[in-house]
Amino acid sequence: MAASDSSPTSPEDRDAHFRQLERQWQEDVGQHLLDIPHEMPGSAAVFERQFQRVIDHLDLGRPGVIAEVGCGKGHFLDQVARTAGDGGPQVVGIDLSHAVHALPAKGLDGLQADGEALPFADGSLRVMVYDGALHHLIDYRAALHDAHRTLAPGGRFVIFEPVSSPFTRLVHRLLDPIIFKQVEYESPIDQEYKHAFLEAPVLEALDELGMTWTLERTDALAYPMTGCYAGSVFARSLPFMRFVMAAEGVCERVPLVRNLLAVLAWRFLVVATKPAK
Ligand SMILES: C[S@@+](CC[C@H](N)C(=O)[O-])C[C@H]1O[C@@H](n2cnc3c(N)ncnc32)[C@H](O)[C@@H]1O
Asked: Torsion angle, CA of 103/106/107/111, rounded to 10 degrees?
């Protein structure tokens, strides 16, 4: 942030400043990047696996509304609807930017709204999904408290987000100046708050809410090889990425290797359930 008379002085002003920058960036830049990884066969396959990891926790055979915060153009919700088929649960996406207006053409419901001010009534949702969007909410703990209000008893959060670990921070420190300064891919909040987004406060918020949760760390190999979806030579090759994902799948089944992969993981998956009563 450039020092000037208009520079934010308090933490609240700084957060407000970055919320405004984020809204503008998602509108002007972010929404136009959303299709790109899905157009590269290798990264499209890795994305499909990512979505399936989340879908595995949605219980698509049960009624009740599934909502996604930060749905972009609806790539994830589209896979949910195709997996569920006719008679599947109602799905709805919200997003900060106009990207959400791509949903109706895919037969999906979408609303332009802020994940920090949810447009859902108390107890109206069975599942709330954050697939790469919770880390865009500066006060993500408060956002989870508000989202909890919208869950029906027995409802759940499925949260799939970036890991901030010593390993990922080191790689970011080494590679960000080379990759992300060249390719405008990370949003203002991504860049400014990425080290403030941690698993521990997410889990603390879930504990405060009285939710039971499970945590898994994933994506040590194939995802970083796509260039974290920002594009790499590997992202273009479907056979190569299928081979890496198969190798990763085998490694994840070997206990000691799985522990090593957890240290090198780039993503975490939390499934949290609200008590039924
Ligand atoms: C990494 S993308 C996730 C894309 C999506 N999950 C998909 O399936 O393609 C993050 C999305 O979060 C949205 N976002 C960022 N801040 C938000 C906010 N405060 N409220 C709602 N959406 C937000 C962005 O506009 C962007 O579309």
From this structure: 0
Token pair in block for residue 6: 């208009």
Q: Which domains does the chain have, with CATH numbers?
A: 11-273 (3.40.50.150)
Q: Give pTM, 2 decimals.
A: 0.93
Say if residues 186 and 180 touch (Cβ distance below 8 Å). yes
The whole-number average pLDDT for the span 18-35 is 95
Q: Which residue has the tokens 């990763």?
A: 248
> For ligand 1, what atom is nearest to the CA of residue 73?
9
CA dist 106 and 186 (Å) reads 26
Ligand 1 centroid vs 80 CA: distance in angstroms? 17
Give residue-wise pLDDT tens across range 138-165: 999 999 999 999 999 999 999 999 998 8
Atom of ligand 1 nearest to the CA of 47: 8
Q: Name residues whose C-beta falls within 8 Å of residue 59's C-beta, 6 or more positions apart in sequence.
A: 127
Q: What is the largest CA-CA distance in the chain?
A: 57
